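Lecture notes, unit on protein representations.

Consider one protein chain, 180 amino acids long.
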Amino acid sequence: MTTVHRYKEIFFGFGLGFMMWVVDAAMHVQMGTEADAPKNFAAELFAPGATQFLFRVLFLLIASAFGFALWRANWRERELRALEEAIIAFHRQLDSPAMRIVSHVRMLQSQTHPARDELTQSVLELIGEDARAIDELARQYIRFSEQVMAGRTAEAIDTLRGIVAWQATNAPHRTPSTTG
């Protein structure tokens, strides 16, 4: 069933071509002249003359090509929709952990404890910054996917370039400095 659903436009084109074959056969049975030997519908459908066969095959090919063209056009749309769904799922999977990390870091930063030294403080700050960076990156990818789905390609490309630039400036890999 998945194959039929995935290639439904191609099957539609082939079915349209087959229906054109049947209609042409019915038309030839109705138009039968006395000079021709009268044919029944089954004989006209399955054993047409050479000219009728050529035209019916041509009908079938044109309709199948039409179905293939529809499939290709819809394939791009389906791929974009799948991309958007993947990005939204990615954001949903990242959003909760990132927010939990940020809230835990804030909770740890607000507590005063004699065992907390500068290294711990800097690690907490880096973890918080990285969590915020993950959250912001996920939000930017959501905006990008919305622009792609809305057909605003130029705007989406600018957003993608902005994401790359943002990553280069705001998400460098840092390690806490040890003082001691």
